[in-house]
Every structure is written in structure tokens, then in C-alpha cells.
Amino acid sequence: MAECGASGSGSSGDSLDKSITLPPDEIFRNLENAKRFAIDIGGSLTKLAYYSTVQHKVAKVRSFDHSGKDTERDHEPPYEISVQEEITARLHFIKFENTYIEACLDFIKDHLVNTETKVIQATGGGAYKFKDLIEEKLRLKVDKEDVMTCLIKGCNFVLKNIPHEAFVYQKDSDPEFRFQTNHPHIFPYLLVNIGSGVSIVKVETEDRFEWVGGSSIGGGTFWGLGALLTKTKKFDELLHLASRGQHSNVDMLVRDVYGGAHQTLGLSGNLIASSFGKSATADQEFSKEDMAKSLLHMISNDIGQLACLHARLHSLDRVYFGGFFIRGHPVTMRTITYSINFFSKGEVQALFLRHEGYLGAIGAFLKGAEQDNPNQYSWGENYAGSSGLMSTSPELGPAQRARSGTFDLLEMDRLERPLVNLPLLLDPPSYVPDTVDLTDDALARKYWLTCFEEALDGVVKRAVASQPDSVDAAERAEKFRQKYWNKLQTLRQQPFAYGTLTVRSLLDTREHCLNEFNFPDPYSKVKQRENGVALRCFPGVVRSLDTLGWEERQLALVKGLLAGNVFDWGAKAVSDVLESDPYFGFEEAKRKLQDNSGIDIILGVFPFVRELLLRGTEVILACNSGPALNDVTHGESLIVAERIAGMDPVVHSALREERLLLVQTGSSSPCLDLSRLDKGLAALVRERGADLVVIEGMGRAVHTNYHAALCCESLKLAVIKNAWLAERLGGRLFSVIFKYEVPAE
Amino acid sequence: MGAGRLGAPMERHGRASATSVSSGGEQAAGGPEGRRQEPLRRRASSASVPAVGASVEGARRDRLGSYSGPTSVSRQRVESLRKKRPLFPWFGLDIGGTLVKLVYFEPKDITAEEEEEEVESLKSIRKYLTSNVAYGSTGIRDVHLELKDLTLCGRKGNLHFIRFPTHDMPAFIQMGRDKNFSSLHTVFCATGGGAYKFEQDFLTIGDLQLCKLDELDCLIKGILYIDSVGFNGRSQCYYFENPADSEKCQKLPFDLKNPYPLLLVNIGSGVSILAVYSKDNYKRVTGTSLGGGTFFGLCCLLTGCTTFEEALEMASRGDSTKVDKLVRDIYGGDYERFGLPGWAVASSFGNMMSKEKREAVSKEDLARATLITITNNIGSIARMCALNENINQVVFVGNFLRINTIAMRLLAYALDYWSKGQLKALFSEHEGYFGAVGALLELLKIP
To answer: Taking CB atoms and an 8 Å cutoff, what residues of chain B touch A306?
Structure first.
């Protein structure tokens, strides 16, 4: 039945020091810009949600005003870069023990300066209990929201917006978590919420869900009955007891009923015939551990069985489990998974959620923010500001961590535009962007973590150098180093902390950390310089291409695409050379590939695009929405295109006639997730009937999408700029990937 | 799970055992053990078959098409027919995880001649079982369940229902040895997990060969048979009207004239749930380990009680709402969003999360809550199975229901309420003995 937390228990955390000093900036981040609040108070944990506006610097590019001036002057940058303040929206979720609730409310009250909010949405069993306290402290009116409605709203939200949100739990495998790629259609599903009782809800659409059943045997039964049997008061301690017990001392097993014959009968002797069946005797003592274990099995099996019966009745195979009974406890995830597998014979999958604990708070927040239509946006998990699964604010120093107790954070950034699937994906549900799963592949994980650690110095240096006029750049860069270093250490210990670990997630985490400390685009000046050089080379490159015969030209164009790709500051092999030799550049890259080349976008991509245009092909050129390493951004691509159009009539007329369209991908990563692309791009792809997809670069065509299956022709090309990866793929450093695929009939 | 049958391999085994039953009579006479048998006793037994019984059996065989003849029978024919009928005593045994259920057929049509020839050990068993209502400190004969004037295999007699705890099985086997059971060359048809567990002990200690039978086959056979013979003129099957209203609640007979399809919920130590489509067509749907053993086991731990009766007696005086957290405890009333009534239990033992409330409950309250928890859960699983199998009559059997009106009424009410009147909970007077009856029927080869 409904989650009601365990209000009234009041037993959890009693012994903790309530006058705790919070490390406020680390936890209630950006509170001075907080706008709207929601709170979910469970039996032992409080989850606070708020929306804030984050002001951060962005590097904007702008064309110089060329009217009446000599635009051909050398050594002048092709465009100007201005650092501007941009305001974006962020959702903050903080989870802490109820013990801290008063201290936290005091802290919020003291720091709440800008809010015009009058109400706070509240949900959870404890919302009633703490209503007066909240109203008194925050001077906000408490608006109570229905628990299950909030839960389901929250569940829909994380399933839609957080990649790798759901996972299956596999005991005995390393790691135990196997994350699911986001299904494009999340409905219908079954949500089994195991609070003090169990509620089973069938969710059919965003707004339609139905309570299909429940059970009174839930977390409260484990806790209450467990406390009676073992005299152990705390839920976590009961779980700990259970994890050490032998249930076969208390339960009547099949082998107890059948003797040794179960083997010849093909029965599993370890199946439980009767829970607590052996305790029906007056003359035997049972250990606390054994009874707790037996109780855990009894309850988990029962819930699993009911969930399977309901899943079968409604023909559903995706069942998500949540509630305080599950919340991050490997013991209960294991027993529930076992039960589901047993009763469904593998037909139903028990799924758990990384942010399960936040569902109520997220839902309550969304309820209160309905007028802002948060559901019409896409949101992205901010790796810099979020704690990982099973890790309590790992980025805090050990001393802070000890003091902050169990504070757990989730931050989500509102993306400028909604993200959707690339319509050309062959089978969206089975699309996995990443080529190597580093959670799985321990060898690759070790290599890449070390690789990112070693590259950190260079990134810090680059960040400082990108802001020569800033007085605190060095200090901020140092903070960035510390934050990213700590993330890497967390991921060494818990590779599953943020879902499936991939090269992409490592790169994205670095970008998030850089943004966090106001290094929005450390490469903007480098790109500006390189683009300037390349633009000047462009006419010459085009001229020499035009002198070639058709076949030679195609080869030259492809080589140009690949050569430009070598200029990637992200790849360590490349950045080492570039950092040590400022004159390394165009000629060096040419030598490596022994032929004509140009710098990625201008000398590689544009000539290739121009060739396509010449043969009558329409081209959609999609670039990153936001900066990532030295990749060209959509903004830069617009200026570059404008400049090229000024030099080249082919590009000029194509732009004018909309045969060449420049759009943004929606991504700010060196990699590309084709299931999260800008809605405008997807619409255009559909509208124009795109029938060839060219994906270029190591991040987008090798680290991701190498195995991506599309329903049209595709070309994936990259230069392998990493010796280890080259070796793994069976080649050498600077080998070329050129993968042309035609979809199977 | 549950103490019921657990898988297909068992079924195979059960069938194989059943086959061996049909040759059981011969085996007793001519098998390896038969060789040690004295010719005198063989004759003595055969001579004891009365003419009147044979005629009934003859009629029965008639239906099967293998024999047709007048009621007058020659001694010779009786002799040949006798081979199809096992020697006395006739037992059916069901050895469960907690309880052993024994049914014993007491022939009441013994002629003077037969009585004279009856061997001493057989007579002593008959007298011992029928003249006592308790055996040792734990064996009990459920006198109120005795079925009178039953005709089985052409013999008239009474069917007795006896139970004792499974942990006294060694004493039972020892008694069999002491009473020189093996000399009777009777076949012990046994079902339940204990038929396997104690098979070796029966053989080595009691010199008795068990004929092991599939417990679900036996269960279904037993139920159908017992329902067909009724309960000494009354109906075997019944249901409750107004189960939630202690004033108006009535136990009423139910005519199971259209038994199929039927969901059969057998609540022993564990629970087995079967969907029965015809006499020979059934499947085990599921089972749960939360059964009678769980109720009693938890009660022992929580209250220190020592017997099932004591546990139930405590439960009858307790108040589970002090222990359980109800919907109204959370929502102040009904939870309208989900259509949940305020009286529904939201969390079994949910109030026990609080120290103050733990200190405020009595043992009786805890016993009651345990009973309500286990019963509601069984009702809930049964209801889901009935929905999945599209069956609307549910028969609850098993010894958990013995003297357990609270559980039966709760099952009746819960099934009716949550199914909005679609499902009917049915019960049967001989709640826990069907497996044993089925075993006896196998012995007698009654289809």
C-alpha cells in the first residue's frame, strides 16, 4: 500500500549530533538564487528540492562588422569572442537524515534572499509531522501533495531525462549494477513502491496511472516485526543483521520436508517450504541474525511474487522497485531480484533506479512548477554537482564527509532545447551510444581513468591560459582539478556511481567540472586562432581540390576530413605534441597523413560539404550546441560558414537556397548520443528525408556510435589518436577508421 | 514453494509409485517379503472376505466392465477378487512438514468368522485406534470428522481421521515395529514430503515398504471423493455469508456440483495453489512459504506459545489494529486517490516500528496480527491467481484452517471485497485430511 514512510518511528539517527555544522556551500548550492521549493519527508530521510537560476560565463562568438572594411587583412581574428554571463535553470535535490531537518531549515532561511516563493510543496509521510516547523522556519505555506502522484511524476521524469537511470542488480557479478539504456517509450510500466507497505501501480501515460494492488507486508513489516524479534531498533541495523544470518536455521526448507530425496526428485532442497517453519518450537533459541535473514527472505519473496502476479495480469515485463526498503540496499535488491527471477522464471525484470530516493521530491517539485512546464524541457544530470550511487558526497573531503553525515546531492540542468532520438536509428530501444562499457571492462577502465588523470595537468594549464585577464583563474582551475580528481577517484572505487562508465561520461564529467568553475570554453581562443589560419588556407585548398580528377578528389576530400580530425586537444597523444611544440600544426598533420589536409571544420568538413553540394546533395551540418574541447560549436560554425560563403559561391548559394543548413546537435560533449539530439535537428532530418549520415571524429564515431545501426547509409570516420585504443582495435596510433555501412535489407 | 509438490520430476515419480500400488496386493503375497509369509495366514485373510462385500465390489467392477455377475458369489470368485483388494488394515498417510495425517478405515462388517481369523496384531491395531481419541501425548483422533457407514471396495465401515506432529514420526515408526506391523504385509500408501524423508526409516526400523504417492494427485483425489460422499449426510463444502459481521455471519452448505474450474489453495506449513480443470487435469500455479508454519512459528517466537490451539486462542482475544498500521492511521481515513478503505492494513506490524507502540501491545495482539497478516497475504495471492487463471471459485483447505474461523471468515471477506464479489471462498469440513484420503484411495485403487 502507500508509502507512508515510517513516521513516528523517530528511531533513526537519534544518536547523531543535531548541532552539526553543515558545509553549506557544498550542499545547499546556489541557494541565494533559489526560486521554488519542494520537500519530501520520509520516515528517516528528508529530500529537499529547489530550482535555482545559475549564472555562469559563456564564450559567445560574434562576427566583426565588416562593412566597408578590408576583410582580407591577415593576422586579424576571424571573429570576436566575448565572455558573457548566461542564466540557466538548475534543479537541486538534497537528501539528508531527518535529524538535520531543523538545522537545514535554519540554514535555508538564512540564505534565502531572492525568492518570491510563498509556498512549498510537501509530500511523504513526514510532511504532516513537520508542517508547522517548515511553516515557522521558512515562512512558506506548506502545500501537501499526494505521495503516489509525486512518486510517479518523479519516476517518469528520471526515466525520461537521466540516461542509465534504471539498472538491474546482479549479485556475484562485478559490478553488481547493470544499467539500462533509456527506452524511448517508457510506458507502460509497473512501479512497486515498498515503503512501510507495498503499493503496486501501473503507469500508462504521463498522467494516467492506476493502483492495481498492494500488500501490507512491506518495509514496515520487516522493521516492526524485526524489531520485535531481534530487539534491534534501526532499519539499517536489521538489514545488517540479516546480511549475516542463516535463514535455513529458522525456515523449513524443502529438504527438511523431503529429506535427501529432493535431489532425486529434481527439487531444489534450498527452497523455502515454510518461512519460520522451524521456529514453531518452544525449546530452541534462534539467533537475531538468522531470524532477520528469514524475515528478509519472507518479505522479499512475497513482494516479488505479488509483483510477478500483477505483471503477468497486466502483461508488463518492466517492473521498477522503489521505496525505503529498497533504497540503495544491496541486500534487499538482491533478495527482490532473486524472487522476481524465481517467480517469473526470468520473464520479468526487476529494475531499480539510481535516483529512486528523489522521486517524491522531484514529483512534488514538478507539481508545484506546473506553470513553468518543466516537462517540456529536457534536463541533464550534472555530474559535477551530483553524488553518485552508493557514494555519499564523495567529493567532500573526508573530514567534511564525516560531519555532513549522509548528504546526497543531485543536480539537473535544464537544457536549452528538448532532446529526442535521431529518427534514423534502426532500433531506438536497443541503441547503445557507447562503444566500450568501462563498468564492465576493468582493463579499459583502468587505462582510461589513468589517462584522464594524467591529462588533468594539461587541462588545468589550458584552463588558466584561456583566461589571462582573470585574477582568480589559477585558484578556480585548482578547484576544478580537485573536483575532477575526486570524481575520478570515486569512479575508481565505484565505477557504477553515475551509471555505465564510459569515455563519454569521463569527458562529460570533465566538461561539467570545468563549467562549474567558470571555464566555459578553455579552447575558444585556440579555436579562434586555428579558424583564422584555416580560413586563410581555404581558398587555396579548394583551388587545389578543383584541379584534381573526380576519384583523386574524393580521396583527397576524405583525407582532408581525417587530417583535420588530428587536431584534437582532447587526445593526449596530440595535446602532448601541441603543448610542447607551438609550431606543430598543419604541416605536421599533413606529414602524418602524407597528403593534403586542413583543419577539421574549415579545411576538412567544408570542402567535403562543398563537394556534396556540387553534386546536388542537400547537407545538414550539425555542430555542438555548447563548447567541448576544441570542437567547433554551432555558433562558430555559423560564422565560419558566413566567412566561407564570402569566399566561395558554391557555399554562398547553398546557404541562401537552404541546401546547406547549419543546425545544432543539442550536445556539449566531444561524444554524441544519437538518442538525445536537438529536436530541431531531428525534425529537419525527417523533413528533408536524410539518407546518409556522416559521423566524424574519435569521440563521435569511435568512443560512441561505432556500433550504431542506422536505417540509412552511414559513414563513420576518425583517426585513432590514442595508442592504447589503436592497439585494442588492432591498429597503430593515427590509424584511420573509415566505416561505410549500408543497412541490411 | 510451499509444502506441496514442487516440480515435474516429482509428478513422474508419483505416477511410478502409483503403478507400484496396483501391484501392491500381489507384492505383499508373492513378493520378496511374501516368501517369508506363512501360507496359513494367506488363507486366513482370504477366508475373511465376506460375501456381501464382494457383491458390492462386484457391482463396482461391473461398472468398470471387467466383471459382471449376480450378487451370489462363490468362494472361489471371492478369492480371486480378493487379490484386487488389499489386505487390512487400510491406511492412508500424509506426512507433511508439521503434521502427519492418517486416515484409517475401520471395517464394521466383519463377520464372526472373519473376526475369529483376524490376526492378533491386526485386531489390536483396530481396537487401539478406534477405542482411543488420543494416542501418546500428541496423537489425536478428530472424532467429529469420522465418516460413518462408508462403503469402500465393497467393505462397510467408518473412516477415522488421526493426526500427530511430524516430529513424532520416529515414535510412530517405532510403534509400527513394536506392533509387528510388517507381519501384516499391508501396504502403506503415503504422500507428502515425509513419504520420501522417512521412507528409509520405515524400511530399516519398521520393516515396512512405503508406497510413495504424489501429494497433489492425492489431494485432488481426496477432495473430490470426500465431497462426493458428503459428511454423514451433510454437505462437505461450505461458505460464509456476511463473513465480516459477527452477528449475521453464517456458515452455509455449498453444493460443489460444478467443481471445475477450481482454484485449490492448500494451506499447510506452506501453501500450494492449484488450478483444477478436471479430475485428471490440474496444474500447480504457485505456492508461498508464508503459510500455517509461518503463523505458528512466528507466534511461538513472539508470544512463547507452544501449541497451534494456544496460538489461535490468543489470537482470538487480541487486537491486530494495535500492531498493524492501517490506511486510516496514515491518511486519517480512506485513501481516496487509490480507493483504499481506511480499515485496510497498510503495513503489517507497521506500528511496531515505534518503541512506544511496541511496549503497548499484548501477546494476544501480536498473535492476532500474525494471523491476520498471513491470512490476508494468502487471500491476496489466491485472488491474483484466480484472476490470472480466470477461475472464480476458490477452495481453501489444509490444517491451517482447523478450528480457525477467524482466518476462514477473513479469507471469505477479503476475497469477496477485493474482487468486488467476483470470487467465492469455499471451505471443506475435512480441511487437512484430503492428501491422506487420496493415499488411501490409491491403496484401494479407487479412481
So the answer is: 380-381, 384
Residue B116 belongs to some domain of the structure = yes
Distance of CA A65 to the CA centre of its chain: 40
Is A99 inside a domain boundary? Answer: yes
From chain A, the residues in CB contact with B6 under 8 A are 254, 262, 265, 267-268, 271
pLDDT of residue A691: 95
Q: What is the mean pLDDT of residues B328-354?
A: 90
A303 shares its domain with A180: yes
User: ipTM for the complex?
Assistant: 0.83
A233 and A181 in one domain? yes
Q: Is residue B21 part of a domain?
A: no
Give the whole-angstrom CA distance, residue B32 versus residue B30.
7
Pairing of strands B139-141, B155-165: antiparallel
- CATH number of the domain within which B179 lies: 3.30.420.510
Longest dimension (CA), chain B: 81
- A211: in domain: yes
Is B154 within 8 Å of B56 (Cβ atoms)?
Answer: yes
* B172 lies in the same domain as B247: no
For residue B347, the chain A residues in CB contact (below 8 A) are: 1, 4, 195-197, 216, 218-221, 224
Range of the domain at A207: 166-250+286-353
Average pLDDT over residues B353-358: 95
Give me the residues of B, 303-362, that contact A with CB < 8 A. 304, 306, 323-325, 327, 330-331, 335, 337-340, 344-355, 357-358
Shared-domain flag, residues B145 and B294: no
Please check whether residue B203 touches A, CB under 8 A. Answer: no
- The model's pTM is 0.85
- A287's CB contacts (< 8 A; 6+ apart) are A245, A249
- Asked if the structure places residue A45 within a domain, the reply is yes
Nearest to A668 by CA among A417, A311, A292, A470: A417
- For the cut 80, the answer to whether the pLDDT of residue A119 exceeds it is yes
Q: What mean pLDDT comes out for the span A363-374?
A: 83
**CATH number of the domain encompassing residue B270:** 3.30.420.40
Closest chain A residue to the Cα of B1, Cα to Cα:
A273
Smallest Cα distance from A267 to chain B, Å:
7
pLDDT tens column, B91-123: 999 999 999 999 999 999 988 888 888 888 888
Q: Are residues A401 and A374 in the same domain?
A: yes
What is the total residue count of chain A? 745
pLDDT (0 to 100) of residue B415: 96
Find out whether the peptide bond into A188 is cis, omega within 30 degrees of 0: yes
Verify that A134 and A170 share a domain, yes or no. no
Residue B187, in any domain of the structure: yes
Cβ contacts (< 8 Å) between B290 and chain A: which residues? 217, 275, 298, 302
- Rounded (to 5) percent helix, strand, coil in chain B: 50, 20, 30
- Is B68 within a domain? no
CA distances from B419 to A96, A314, B379, B408 (A): 41, 16, 11, 16
Report which listed range, A148-162, B332-346, B375-389, is most confident: B375-389
Question: Which residue from B minimizes the CA distance to A342?
Answer: B1
Q: How far is CA A32 from CA A55, A114, A600, A642, in A?
A: 11, 6, 42, 41
Residue B349 lies in domain: 323-359
Q: Do B354 and A196 touch (CB under 8 A)?
A: no
Interface test with B, best of A276, A279, A348 (most B CBs within 10 A): A276
Catalytic residue numbers of B, as ranges: 215
Nearest to A224 among B8, B344, B351 (CB): B351
Indicate if A233 and A371 belong to the same structural domain: no
Residues 34-93 of B with CB under 8 A from A: none
For B136-176, what is each residue's pLDDT tens digit?
Answer: 889 999 999 999 999 998 899 999 999 999 999 999 999 88
Arithmetic mean of pLDDT over chain A? 85
Same domain, A126 and A56: yes
Residue A305 lies in a domain: yes
pLDDT bucket at B30, cuts 50 / 70 / 90? very low
Q: CB of B15 within 8 Å of any CB in chain A?
A: no
